[in-house]
Amino acid sequence: MRLSKFFPRLYVFVFFALMLGCSTNDTDNFYNGALTTAISSDLFGYWEVYEIEYNGQIEDVPVKFTDCGRDFFEYRETGIYQEFLFLDSDCKTNMNQFQWELKNGVITLKNNVVGTKDFVITKLENGEIHFKTRMDVDEDGKLEDVTLFAINTYPRDFSFMDQTFKPEVVATEEGLVRFNWEPYSGSNTFQKYEVYRSAGENCSRTNAELVATITDVNETTFADLTPPVSGKLCYFLKVYTDLGLLGETYLKTIPTYLIPVEPVKMNEPMVLNNTIELSWAASETPYFSHYEVLVANHEPGIGDGYQDISVAIINDRNTTSWIDENPPYLENPYYYIRAYNIFGNYTDYSNEVTLYWQVPFKRPEILPLQQILSYAVDPTEPVVYLFGKESGDAYSDYPIFRFNYDSQQTEAISSINPGLLSGFPIKTIVSPYGKEVVVPQGAELYFYDATTLQFKYAVDPEGPSSMEDLNYDTVRDVWVLSDNDNMFTLERNNASLKLVDIAPHFAQHQGSAGYEFIILKNGQYLLGHPNETTSLVFDLDANGNFTGSQSVNIQFRSFYTNERLLYSSTGDVLLDTQGQQLFSSVTFQNAGAFARPNVPSGISVDGSTIFGTDNEYDWGINNLSPHKKEAILFNRNTSALTTIETIGYPHILFENFRGEVIGISSGFKKEDLYQNINNTSDFFMEKVLVP
Questions:
Q1: Strand pairing class (270-272; 244-248)
Q2: Residue (of 679, 620, 663, 667) closest to 371 by Cα position
Q3: Residue 399's closest CA among 437, 429, 428, 436?
Q4: 137 Ramachandran zone, left/alpha/beta (phi>0; psi -120 to 50)
Q5: Which of 653, 672, 629 is nearest to 309 (CA)?
Q6: How many Cβ atoms from other residues are within 10 Å of residue 215's Cβ?
Q7: Residue environment code for 100-123, b if the CB has 16+ CB neighbours within 10 A, otherwise e
């Protein structure tokens, strides 16, 4: 049998013989004749198999690709064994790597995939090695002893270097593009290495530029200190000898978004009066571009309503401090420091150094509520009464605050805090008993002195078993209530409310809260519910007795959202903020529509101007959402639309007793007044500077 007929198969197996070799558990004669005097240093270097012997027959091992030479393998001093198998005529190689050791003339190769296999050295002298292995030569399922003859050589091809030219992992993790490779060890005279770089989505050899020339054969590292700004960088290596170009590697591509930025340590901020001083360690990132200082309403992570606001860009690496002279409208804001590289990358989180701090700071004008459940505007003073959850932890109380938006001061806090059983928004009512703040609490009404917010008494009205809405009729001197089924008029005597009259409203009982009414200038009561497409108008006599009702095509909106049915008694107009429609409060006929503001929230006292924003309620809250800090005013008489820049994001806009437009705003984007992030407040009141 001639070995040549098996060479196509044997050729592949020569360098994968590890998978077919013998283990030390064999008890036959495979290990006989081992050259026990062989030493490891005699194995160092490159080898190629030129002959193979089986059953006394010796054949040459052919060269599969003429331009490449034979496959070869390498023993390294570090205990690494590598074998290189040429794949095609372009001399592309496949490399396999193992651990090796020599003991008593037996070479043991191992890795985690194929385990441990042995090769028996029978001769090792003058740059030649003979060693036995085992393979199934005749495909009968049995392993036969085969002897391979190899000589110490230098690879005649360059491709094996392509396996070692690659980015240095440690350097890349530190944000630096650095390559290394194995030094040239051929028999020719080395001249130089050349490193080429290309950039861009279409980076290739053809548009590459020479970025380094190295004439020391042992200098096998290149760090690119000045790469271009690009989404992708490509590199390759050329090696020259006295015979000219030996070869060049394939393009090695680095997506620049993977190049990290070393985090910089942020020191604890200092609060100085109404400013916040920040400082940090200088960045050591190789491709430094700039620092960015951000104010955020959250610590690292992702969450509903989380936002980061850029407040400073610093281009000097050595400038490591900054003072925020205009701190955000946010209680206890978070400050972040980011160092960027030229590729736009930055470190967003680190468990090694501190990148952010929460600063114990609060502007005096920030309202003391993390959630505003309802509010009432004082008709004669620069005051708004606010009911909601106090800022602080998750178990904060729900007080009522009297807030003066001229002085930006809280003037009073409720002496007894109501609970959450508030069936309708708090009311500010002026009656013969003075100015009072009234809050429903189940079947009772809590009355507070409006100036001091001292609790006066709880009143259980006669008639209704629950309460949906409340108001005071100044013309008839009666109090008006609604529940799920009826309207009530009542006469007050300090802490008692006695029934005057009762009238049923809608036939269909709405299980959810939401019945609301408006006392019109002409003395009629307009009542509706968000689930009812029409409303009811009640007529009464001078004593508060109901005399009849009629249905009108006007729909109330839910007071649990910012969309309401608003009323201007001076202008005799009703504003449907959800439908962006106007109605006469005399004839109840449609009085027109408007396109902007998209989200109206108020109407002027005379009914001529509509206030609002274009910030839609259903927009997602994030850094990129299109919310704007602006108020939009639409004049019905002139059709003029005025856009005014505001300090914050307005949620509610109203005209006060002096004709000023006042906003309840948030420093950060929010869906509504109920949204809370981290139990802190960013609500405040601002005057809109109407031209």
A1: unpaired
A2: 679
A3: 437
A4: alpha
A5: 629
A6: 10
A7: bebeebbbbbbeeeeeebbbbbee
Residue 271 token pair:
């609060």
DSSP single-letter state for residue 298: S
The Cα 634–Cα 682 span in angstroms is 27
Percent of the chain predicted with pLDDT > 90: 63
Looking at the chain, the whole-number percentage of residues with pLDDT higher than 70 is 92
Closest to 152 (Cα-Cα) out of 66, 75, 99, 81: 75
Res. 683: pLDDT tops 50: yes
| Nearest Cα to Cα of residue 159 among 69, 78, 225, 75 | 69
Question: What is the separation of C-alpha 419 from the centre of its chain, rounded to a whole number of angstroms?
Answer: 36
Q: Quick count: other Cβ atoms within 10 Å of Cβ 433?
A: 15
604-634 tens-digit pLDDT = 999 999 999 999 988 888 889 999 999 999 9
Closest CA to 52 of 152, 129, 146: 146
DSSP output for 587-653: T--EEEE---SSEEEEE-TTS-EEEEES--TTS--STTS---SEEEEEETTT--EEEEE-SSEEEEE
Statement: residue 141 has pLDDT above 50: yes
Distance CA 92, CA 162 (A): 9
Tell me the pTM. Answer: 0.75
